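User: As part of a screening pipeline, I want to sanity-check one entry by hand. Below is the sequence and the SMILES for flavin-adenine dinucleotide. Please return the complex as structure tokens so I can compare it with the automated output.
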Amino acid sequence: MATPAHVIGGGLAGSEAAWQLARAGISVVLHEMRPVRGTDAHKTATLAELVCSNSFRSDDVWNNAVGLLHEEMRRCGSLIMGAGDTHKLPAGGALAVDRDGFAAAVQSALEAEPLVDLRREEVRRLPDPSWGPSIVATGPLTSPGLAEAIREVSGERELAFFDAIAPIVHRDSIDLEVAWFQSRYDKPGPGGTGADYVNCPFDRDRYEAFIDALLAGEKHAFKEWETSTPYFEGCLPIEVMAERGRDTLRYGPMKPVGLVDARTCERPFAVVQLRQDNALGTLFNMVGFQTKLTWGEQKRIFRMIPGLERAEFARLGGLHRNTFINSPRLLDRELRLKALPHIRFAGQITGVEGYVESAAIGILAGHFAAAEMRGTEALPPPPTTALGALLGHITGGAAADTFQPMNVNFGLFPPLEGKVRKTERKPALARRALADLDAWLARLPKAA
Ligand SMILES: Cc1cc2nc3c(=O)[nH]c(=O)nc-3n(C[C@H](O)[C@H](O)[C@H](O)COP(=O)(O)OP(=O)(O)OC[C@H]3O[C@@H](n4cnc5c(N)ncnc54)[C@H](O)[C@@H]3O)c2cc1C
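Assistant: Here is the complex for your manual check:
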């Protein structure tokens, strides 16, 4: 009998990867540690358990990148989307699912699949090359033994146990009449120009009002089990810094030294800096602005920042327990660990964020592993598709030094050619994506 592939973790990504391998005619052993060993968030032994909300977010194919990703995944024969569609609940434009029915459907599909051997066991070390192609999809709450094994291979700095997410803004929504490009002291630094940051200037009054809003803003609390995971002073939420003193931010992430407002020719009282976040230059990251403010409050309060009054956010900030690797540094374009290429990673541990994105990377890891095992060319999805844009971001497009988990969003897509009206841009990107996806799917080998 041919050697099977191995998938470790039967969550959103691992279930999808195992399904894709089986659909491609390849035997797969799926190792899931629950119920032998639990996590701090899962409550059941069912595969693909949704640990928190029951929403797959917007299902709008033409105006929302996650809606487009849904549609692409459906066209790829996604188990997760199939089960989600079967168990959907009324939720307006969002795809919300009956979590029990959804997870039971994923589990029974995999149990009924003769090519899938489901084993309830914890894998404590990284697969040996004798296992053959393997996919690690153990998620944000990877068990400590395996996390330690990953850390030994990746190095301490490349495996995180908390995400410290600063908001990301679409560059074309920044008011550059107010904000300006300049690096501190005009220093070019390695590979820079001396004008690499967008700077948003505060006078004293606006700074004081901003601090008041941060202090009063509604925040999420840390979960009890999160507080026992150490995190570092270097990634304190901004509102915690503000609580330590009204000037703390002005001497920290909002320090104005080395910056001169191009309009007033003076040093501002305080500055918020944004740094380019992707190779395309479409996204800018608010430097040092990790936060536990609720999403609604972030939008309201961060639009008080001069120059960001009309900011559109590609990602809002957060701070959570989350195990993830520095994929742009550690993985190749086929999600293989460069140091141990028989191992692929999939799901949230690769630095994507969310149920849908995790499952999407599971599809791709399954697809690449299947190609390798069949000896066929591993065709990557075009970068113009949501699948390709997400893959491109985590395996190269994102800045490795500041890499933090990312949802799919239109800022990850290569811009359209020619002039397209702003209101037409998203539908045009979606039309291009689906046409390119269909052409890609037509080139893939069919299951034996
Ligand atoms: C508390 C919390 C709340 C969240 N809320 C949301 C939300 O509301 N919406 C959203 O979109 N995303 C949310 N997320 C992110 C969410 O976890 C991911 O989006 C998604 O579940 C990730 O899919 P995954 O397959 O990568 O990981 P998981 O779905 O977590 O699957 C990983 C699986 O691996 C298993 N496993 C771990 N270690 C081992 C091991 N050593 N051996 C064998 N099996 C192992 C686990 O038991 C688990 O079943 C949340 C995450 C957390 C931690």
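Points to compare against the pipeline: The first helix runs from residue 12 to 23. The mean pLDDT is 93.
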